[in-house]
Amino acid sequence: MAENRAEVLAGAAVLAAALGFLGWSLGGDRLAVGAGSYTLTASFRSVEGIRAGSDVRLAGVKVGTITALRLNPETFYADAVISVDSKLQLPTDSAILISSEGLLGGNFVELVPGGAEEILAPGEEIEDTQGAVSLLNLLMKWIGGSEAESDTTGAATE
User: What's the average model confidence in pLDDT over 38-64?
Assistant: First the structure.
């Protein structure tokens, strides 16, 4: 009888820990849209690796979230809506870019504050953007550049 009670208590402790981790993972450190936040917009040439829900970081600290991505049919750019912490006051000449956590890491959006005295108001657009850089395209350019250099070098020496 005592063994059954110990097994039930151990099972209950494991279940409580699992529920705690589930709650933390679902709501942990995410910034709630609307609660102490405001939105800004930005247009990117490429948002590869970014989706709604991706982190927005400043100096490596999460300060917001991508809330929406949509293709602008007039400019053929991807328009992003970001929600940032209302305590954050970004200058109007701030930049926004898509960065990567490394070769195998995911992408996130990085804010780079400018130096202007004017502050971006809610709903305004961040003009200075840099889209995602495709590692495959960079590799193909590097390989293509190596062949072009060897062709011109080979032709010059013959």
Answer: 90
| Reported confidence tier of residue 2, pLDDT bands at 50, 70, 90 | low
Please give the Cα distance from 107 to 133 (Å, whole number): 10
Report domain extents, the chain. 1-30, 31-141
Question: Higher pLDDT residue, 52 or 103?
Answer: 52
For residue 114, give the amino acid letter.
G
User: Could you count the other beta carbons within 10 Å of the beta carbon of residue 88?
Assistant: 17
What is the C-alpha separation between 121 and 143, in angstroms, rounded? Answer: 45
Contact indicator for 75, 43 with CB cutoff of 8 Å: yes
Give the confidence band of 156 by pLDDT, cuts at 50, 70, 90: very low
Q: Do residues 96 and 16 touch, judged by C-beta distance below 8 A?
A: no
Q: How far apart are CA 89 and CA 138, in angstroms?
A: 35
Q: Give me the residue label for tokens 């495959």.
A: 136
| Strands 61-71 and 78-85, bridge-based pairing | antiparallel
What is the average per-residue pLDDT within 108-130? 89
Sheet holding 55-58, edge to edge: 125-126, 37-44, 78-85, 61-71, 55-58, 107-112, 95-100, 128-130
Work out the widest C-alpha separation in the chain, in whole angstroms.
92
